[in-house]
Amino acid sequence: MLPQEIIRTKRDGGTLSAKEICAFVEGLTSGAVTEGQVAAFAMAVFFKGMTGDEAVALTLAMRDSGDVLDWSDLHGPVADKHSTGGVGDNVSLMLAPIVAACGIYVPMISGRGLGHTGGTLDKMESIPGYTVAPGNELFRKTVRETGCAIIGQTANLAPADKRFYAIRDVTATVESVPLITASILSKKLSAGLDALVLDVKSGNGAFMAKPRDAAAQAKSLVEVANGAGMKTSALITGMNEPLADAAGNAVEVDVAVEFLTGVRRERRLQAVTVALAAEMLMQAGTVGTHQEATMRAVEALESGAAAERFARMVSALGGPSDFLEHHERYLERAPVAKSAAAQRDGYVGAIDTRAIGLAVIALGGGRTRPDQKIDHRVGITGLLPVGSAVGRGDVLAHVHSRDDDAAKEAARQIVNAYRIVENKPKRVRPVIRRVAL
Question: Could you give the CA distance from residue 314 to residue 93 in angstroms, rounded to a whole number?
């Protein structure tokens, strides 16, 4: 089957057969389909969409483009979580060890930054020595002995998605429900999970900015995943402001360590993290009620058990054995710091969250092309949340940059991203709704 004919069919609004989709994915994996053809196919799907059967076929074809892991040797359920992408969203770094401390194995196969959003792998690579691409033996050993491992896709796990993911990132085709669904689930299905929980973001910092679009994405993911035999539910969470008060890579690892060790836990970040942990325990079938699930997740955090799991995971995958105690010593710092100041008195009424993510990319903390290296040191810290009272000249956030010019531009972008209003806005719950079959 000619790739251009498959593209033509979808471009014209036609429905592709499973055979046609499998043929295209095989070419995507082998390299027979060019980068231009992949981009054209992605754009056609972006505008014309896919039926439910097409989305299932694409998901399964990308899963079957490589190996499928088998965890039957483990004495317990295997579960994972995936976020559709946000700004200041470092939940995975805390969630995996929390859930592992509750007796569930978490082989968390994560991705890099996509569009304006940060990537879990880029954050973990801020830790010196930490390998996001261990061999299969080390990966399995780490999961078996520590309960969790945060790694990237290996060459043999959904390789079709790995190539497709990189091309979508730089061709403005990220915000497509069937493509996001297939990308996420092909990786998760290949990971051999018993259960999956999805964090579907909604708001101006999410790929699905409108609530109805986020709901459609969550519904698609839950239906396709359960249809493929994996027990799955989703939480829709707010992304109308950064989740943590930092955006970047090393700076978000800082936040994660402080969260796990109890030094500092921001209200919104804790609410989302604990809610997702409780949902994972429920989906894995280890608790009977949501209340019990929440209590167990909080206990794992408060007791230090989750922090201990994180430390063991970092060490097992090549990072410093004393990283938890001395993370500030190991994480590199950007040489230039600059503050972004409020231009008037009032309250933080709204934040253009996507603009914050783009500011991090402009600093060098994200990518504009697939092969680009990033600067793990740069980022933004101290981001004031919506509802904060400010006076003219008060600091809205701190910029960490490799040079003065980039720092000044990022500070300007941050000021423009913040809307200061006269009256304090109402507090909005970070967890909006649950989606399940």
Answer: 11
